[in-house]
């Protein structure tokens, strides 16, 4: 069992927008943004076998990577995002430390993938007012699906637009 909660890191010199996204994600997942600096990924994985890493594309969050070194898996998302301030114009923190996951339409196919990654953090709860909703793209073209965060029925952001998703077997961190 991982005791520290969700750890979120970035590439070595993140843009301001990427840092804001990491803080937003940490707030809603009751996680902790970790300043990486020059620390090699191997050293981080020695302390935290499961992390979320945000990589950039042209100064914006472009890839979201869920590393699970216990199962030797990497869930790779190609993304674009809307920050909390762009969704609800304020910062909303998950003081409960719990989140409910909901899957709609064709996103149900990804349920086990996400539950398996997040279960060790102890944050998943059916009773939480904070929700992480996986919403299908009904238009059929463009994004694969959306990940939208809610508190009650209000969208709080961030909004993650998932353009593609891949699950890879890994040996050593890259």
Describe it.
Probably involved in the biogenesis of the ribosome. Residues 4-173 form the Brix domain. This is Probable Brix domain-containing ribosomal biogenesis protein. InterPro entries: Brix, Brix_dom_Rbsml_bgen_prot. The structure is a single chain. With 174 residues, the chain is of the alpha/beta class. The chain has one domain: Rossmann fold. Helices cover 18% and strands 39% of the residues. It has a 9-stranded mixed β-sheet. Helix 1 links the parallel strand 1 (7-10) and strand 2 (32-33). The two termini are 24 Å apart.
Please provide a brief summary of the model.
With 174 residues, the chain is α/β, with parallel strands linked by helices. Helices cover 18% and strands 39% of the residues. It has a single domain (7-169), classed as Brix domain (Rossmann fold, 3-Layer(aba) Sandwich), CATH 3.40.50.10480.
Features:
Rossmann fold, 9-stranded mixed β-sheet, 39% strand, alpha/beta, 174 residues
The secondary-structure class comes to alpha/beta
The number of strands is 9
Q: What would CATH call the class?
A: Alpha Beta
**What is the number of independent domains?**
1
Q: What is the N-to-C order of secondary-structure elements (H for helix, E for strand)?
A: EHEHEEEHEHEEE
Shape, please?
globular
Name of the CATH superfamily: Brix domain
GO molecular function: rRNA binding
GO biological process, one term: rRNA processing
Domain Brix: 4-173
Keywords: Ribonucleoprotein, Ribosome biogenesis
